[in-house]
Structure of DNA-binding response regulator:
Amino acid sequence: MKQILIVEDHAIVRLGIIRLLQDLLPKPVAIEEAASGAEALERIAAHPFDMVLLDLSLPGRNGLDLLKQLHRLNPKLPVLVLSMYPEEHYAVRALRGGAAGYLNKGSAAEELQAAAEKVLSGGRYITPSQADLLAEALVEEPQGAPLHRQLSDRECQFVSLLAAGRTTNEIANELSLSVKTISTVRSRVLEKLRLRSNAELIGYWITQHPEE
């Protein structure tokens, strides 16, 4: 029996994913849930899993940080990332962080099925577009790399949410940070990208189409 852990903070989303996997995957399959990074670590420490399905937006914890920690603790535990963020923003970062695959939450059920079956069989699920992004990241000369490559995972999350129209308070709640910390993150991002305002920052993010 395959054992799967779903790490997602929204109960309705967890329920939907569970029902999909129960319908799509060969039986028998046992699925457990975790609503936070801390809960996920507790469950993984207490029980072996064949796959973790991980959301990147978690309360109190950066999902990419959790992914890297899971990979350090158990490199053989496959983690399939299922995120609201477009793959051109985060797929390369997730795959470099140890993910066995990356899917956007807008993906079709058939793609989730294909990804889950591939990862559960010991493989890695990489779409053709993600393969292109990985290839570009490998061949790009460091001195010619775009400025957004300097951003940390947290800073990339901030810009993605800002470009999606979120307010400072909404971003702070989403990332479980204080408004003051978000302001500090914003200042660092503007400095790294050599920009002066939110408008310039959003324009840069939209027009540059960051690969990660």
Notes: The chain has a mean pLDDT of 86. The first strand starts at residue 2 and ends at 7. The longest helix spans residues 179-193. The CA atoms of residues 110 and 188 lie 40 Å apart.
